[in-house]
């Protein structure tokens, strides 16, 4: 029997037969995979904890024709505070739902896993604005997936968008581009949102920074960033 060792977090669990579960794991090496956890509903199961939603574990798996099965597992992090807080659990559900929809088996999800674990840690341990955390997660996730537009210049006239920090810049969510104030006048105003230059600088920071550092800033104009994260995700989701 060939065994495979992975690290991963359960992003979905489904009852299966009397005592089993099918769990979906976002893994470091195999992408998003479905795994049968035999006997995981039993209170004496060695895989009881590791087969629960939002638990990060090291798994040893074996594979049959259609499914992976758990041979053994060791819990690495349960994100306990997050799991017992209903409001934060709702946020986690939103994040894992997004990840479930944009990942697949045999995809390189190592950075996506790092992003999710770091985001859950921030929600679990740190006192950060939760809406801003979610927005940062969305921006970085879409960056990892390769959807980030050119941030430093206007896509139409190539003007540097950081030149005048008092000006507004504009995100065209139909074409997924940034525009300066002059160029946006030629566009349909129903296809863009207005954001501040400091917000654009924060977006650029998130895109360019290591995953471990993306939450290490604060922003006075949180609403602009939160709006961009929401619109950016919705715009790209329609193309995936």
- The succession of helices and strands, N to C, reads EEEEEHHHHEEHEHH
Distance between the termini: 37 Å
Which structural class should the secondary elements be placed in?
Answer: alpha+beta
Q: In what range is the share of β-strand residues?
A: 15-25%
Q: How many domains, as an integer?
A: 2
Q: Enumerate the strands of the largest sheet in spatial order, edge to edge or round the barrel.
A: 1-2-3-5-4
Helix content: 25-40%
Features:
240 residues; alpha+beta; OB fold (Dihydrolipoamide Acetyltransferase, E2P)
Explain how this protein is built.
The chain is built from 7 helices and 8 strands; from the N terminus they run E-E-E-E-E-H-H-H-H-E-E-H-E-H-H. It is an alpha+beta fold and 240 residues long. The chain has a 5-stranded mixed barrel with strand order 1-2-3-5-4. It has a 3-stranded antiparallel beta sheet with strand order 7-6-8. Helix 2 runs antiparallel to helix 3 (110-125), helix 3 (110-125) runs antiparallel to helix 4 and helix 4 packs across helix 7. The chain folds into 2 domains: 3-80, OB fold (Dihydrolipoamide Acetyltransferase, E2P) (Beta Barrel); 128-240, no CATH class. It is elongated, with a radius of gyration of 21 Å.
């Amino acid at each position: 029997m060939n065994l495979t060792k992975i690290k991963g977090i359960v992003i979905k669990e489904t009852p299966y037969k009397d005592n089993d579960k099918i769990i979906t794991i976002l893994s470091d090496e195999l992408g998003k995979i479905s795994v049968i956890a035999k006997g995981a509903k039993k209170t004496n199961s060695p895989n009881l904890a590791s087969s629960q939603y939002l638990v990060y574990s090291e798994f040893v798996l074996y594979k049959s024709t259609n499914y992976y099965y758990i041979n053994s597992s060791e819990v690495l992090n349960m994100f306990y505070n997050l799991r017992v807080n209903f409001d934060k659990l709702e946020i986690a559900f939103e994040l894992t739902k997004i990840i479930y929809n944009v990942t697949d088996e045999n995809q390189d999800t190592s950075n996506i896993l790092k992003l999710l674990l770091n985001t859950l840690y921030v929600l679990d341990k740190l006192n950060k604005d939760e809406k801003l955390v979610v927005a940062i997660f969305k921006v970085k996730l879409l960056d990892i997936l390769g959807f980030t537009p050119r941030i430093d210049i206007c896509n139409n006239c190539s003007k540097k968008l950081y030149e005048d920090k008092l000006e507004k810049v504009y995100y065209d969510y139909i074409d997924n581009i940034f525009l300066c104030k002059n160029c946006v006048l030629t566009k349909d105003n129903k296809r863009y949102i207005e954001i501040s230059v400091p917000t654009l600088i924060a977006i650029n920071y998130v895109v360019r920074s290591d995953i471990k550092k993306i939450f290490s800033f604060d922003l006075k104009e949180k609403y602009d960033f939160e709006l961009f994260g929401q619109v950016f995700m919705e715009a790209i989701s329609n193309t995936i």
